[in-house]
Amino acid sequence: TIAAIEKKWKTAYAPNVFGYYFLDDFFDAQYKNDQNAEVLLSALAFLAFFISSSGLFALAMYSIGGRIKEISIRKVFGASSSNLALMLGRDFLKLVVIAGLIALPLEYQGVSIWLERYAYKMPLYLEVYLIPLGAVAIFALGTISFQIFSAANRSPVKAINHE
Question: Which of 110, 113, 109, 129 shows the shortest CA–CA distance to 121?
């Protein structure tokens, strides 16, 4: 078909060069940058996820290590392990919520600016932002849960004698 079209073109427009492209190739070229950006952002997100989880684990170790005496005294006075775990987990959950409250407006603004480039726009629903925030909170509690439960179940006598 292209050869037939080229032949007709040369008879009608002999001095002009025959050039063509397929529309799907044109659309692929338009979105190639987005595909490359997706790969790069996925790799950076994984790296950020790994670094943040390592930092959160270290923060949990440091914070709980500094409160061993307090945890032991609370345990001697009758606090249950679940109450201690809830107390320690609440502190870290507050940090996650504060980080989310800072990040959500920035993320909304960034995604809005990025979507302005497209002819067809999708609406930005609140669930798109709240579900990942909930997943991050669950992940954060999962990351620090080992430290929390080991501190809550530690023998208070050993901790107080060590101090």
Answer: 113
| Gap between the Cα atoms of 85 and 148, Å rounded | 6
CB 68 within 8 A of CB 157: no
How many whole angstroms from its chain centre is CA 74? Answer: 35
Phi, psi of 79 (to 5 degrees): -70, 135
C-alpha 151/C-alpha 14 separation (Å) is: 85
| 8 Å CB contact between 72 and 160 | yes
Using CB atoms within 10 A of its CB, is residue 147 exposed (0-12), middle (13-18) or buried (19+)?
A: buried
pLDDT in tens, the chain (163 residues): 888 988 888 888 888 888 888 888 888 887 888 888 889 999 999 999 899 888 888 888 888 888 888 888 888 888 888 888 888 888 888 888 898 889 889 988 988 888 887 778 788 888 888 888 888 888 888 888 888 888 878 887 777 776 5
pTM for the model: 0.66
Handedness of CA 115, 120, 126, 127 (dihedral sign): negative
